[in-house]
Amino acid sequence: MGQSLIQAAALSAAIFGLSGCLADTNKGSFVSRLKSPDAGLAVKESGPKTTAFASTASTYDDKLNSESNVINGLVARRSALPNGSAYDQVTSAVLAANVRSAESELRSARLRAEAAGTNWLPTIGPSISLTSLSDVIVNFVVDQVLFDNGRKKGEREFAKADVEVAAVALAQDTNDRAATGLELYLAAAEGREKASLAETTLEDMARFEYIMSERVRGGVSDMSDLNIIRQKLSEIHAAQTAGRETTRSAIAELNAMSVQPLQGVRGLTKLKVSATDAQPLKVTKAEAEMTREIAAAKIDRASQLPGVSLSGTVGKNSNIGVKAGGAQFGLGTGARLKAIEIAKETAGRRVSQANEDSNRALRKLESQIAAKTRQASEATNLTAQAKNNLDLFQAQYKAGQRQVMDVVGVYQTFSKAQEAEVTLKYEAATLRVEMARILGVLADGDLI
After folding, report:
1. Domain presence at residue 46
2. CA–CA gap between residue 34 and residue 45 (Å, rounded)
3. Tens digits of per-residue pLDDT, 224-281?
4. Taking the model in full, what pTM does it have?
5. Is 131 part of any domain?
6. In this structure, what CATH number is given to the domain that contains residue 105?
7. How many domains does the chain divide into?
């Protein structure tokens, strides 16, 4: 057994040396880089590793990071949230509690890519057989692929692209979670502000109700007017309750996905985001998937064609030889090869479709944000006008020129204008968060 191991090692070395002469000599290939004069030198640390790669770091990570434009682009993304703002506080607390299942998938993909990076090396394994004389024969089989129509290279490219797809998925998952947290925060803030408006309105309307009840008691006004005011009081009270319930529900859900309570955070952050700030993550993922699908097509194509390998057996009957074979041709081989080529074209079309869909969504959001911002500005002006009318009617009421119900009607118009202003303001803020989510700028890429 010991002699067989020595012979297997010698045969592996010989096959390895021959494979180095016959390997892919493409300048940018992984094989040619390993054959460079500096291949035996230790890889120097080029800087701090990103969070997603830190837990199981290896020199392959540095190589992957330096060669991947997708990962470099993701790491270079900067958050659009101002440091220390309410949005930043909410996002930090929410992301700190993220279980990051997508990160585990990225680690798995990275390790698969590291394993695939050495798939050009020869393989060795035992071969055990039982003869008719009841003797156990143990041989070692060493196999080295010499020509496989690019299958091994395609496997390396597929594994690398798989890492890129997983990295984009992690960025999407992180930005989706941040957007969910911010939307809950905005819902809570809107409910809180509307409840506060309803409370003020309720106090003012209660004074009108008291005045009208005294007028009815004195026989000056009709009971129907008092009933109308009381109905309005009930509606305002219901709106106040709804606002408080919305706030409680949103805060409870937000705290459930955060590492710390966030009910004390206040403020509406002015989020500056534009459709041209970054490439949409959906497009980035489609490009990474296209690269992966093209690599898969290369593997499929190579599987349809014969290859050449060098194999040897070490043991009782040692031998070494060149073996040709693999896939067998048939009447459908040509059609299968054409289908594989069409798969590459399909992947490119998916990128174009993702680009179109993202552009449509961003342009729509831009229009909606502009419209909501304009409407909010108009609502502010309408609120100011309604307040001026209310002041005028109250002055006329005190002078005996207006009835109580006239003032109540104008006050209700003023109250609705205030509520509309709040609604439009938070709708515009929510749309900005959605645009930032699509662009993937709700968190710094190097921290993801």
Report:
1. no
2. 18
3. 888 988 898 999 999 999 999 999 999 999 999 999 999 999 989 888 998 888 999 9
4. 0.77
5. yes
6. 1.20.1600.10
7. 1
